[in-house]
Specification:
132 residues; alpha/beta; Rossmann fold; 4-stranded parallel beta sheet
Length: 132
C-alpha cells in the first residue's frame, strides 16, 4: 500500500492516532463473519506511521439498517446503540480516529464520537473510505 500524492492528506490525518473501528452488533458480526471497519483499521495501521488499533466500542443494541433512513431517523436509530467496552478506558492525551467504511450522513460516526468524548477523549476525529 504505497502512498500516492493524493493519499498524503489522509495519511497525515491518521498518523500517530489510535484507530477505533465502528463495531457491529454481535449478531450481525456473527452472520457476516467479519467487521469491515476492523479490517480497514488494521490495514491502515500497518501502513501509516504511529497508528494503532483499539476496539474500544461495542454496539450493544441491534439497530435497523441505515440504508433507507433519512438523516433524522439515522441519528435517532444509532443515538444510544454504542458504548465503551467494559474494562476499557480512553486516554485524554491521545488522538482517536473513528474508522468506518462509508460516510453517508455521519450519524454512526457522531454516535461513536459521543461515546468516546463522554469517556474522556478530548481529540476525536473520523475517517471513512467512501461517501455514500
Amino acid at each position: 500500500m504505497a502512498a500516492a500524492a493524493t493519499d498524503e492528506p489522509f495519511h497525515r490525518h491518521l498518523a500517530g492516532s489510535i484507530l477505533v473501528p465502528v463495531p457491529l452488533h454481535t449478531e450481525k458480526a456473527w452472520a457476516r463473519g467479519y467487521n469491515q471497519s476492523e479490517r480497514i483499521a488494521a490495514g491502515l495501521a500497518r501502513h501509516i506511521p504511529g497508528c494503532t488499533v483499539a476496539s474500544l466500542l461495542e454496539k450493544h443494541t441491534a439497530t435497523e439498517s441505515q440504508t433507507r433512513l433519512d438523516r433524522t431517523k439515522r441519528l435517532r436509530n444509532v443515538a444510544k446503540a454504542f458504548r465503551l467496552k467494559r474494562g476499557h478506558a480512553v486516554d485524554p492525551s491521545q488522538r482517536y480516529v473513528i474508522i468506518d467504511d462509508v460516510l453517508t450522513t455521519g450519524a454512526t460516526l457522531h454516535a461513536c464520537a459521543a461515546v468516546l468524548r463522554a469517556a474522556g477523549a478530548t481529540s476525536v476525529n473520523a475517517a471513512a473510505l467512501a461517501h455514500g
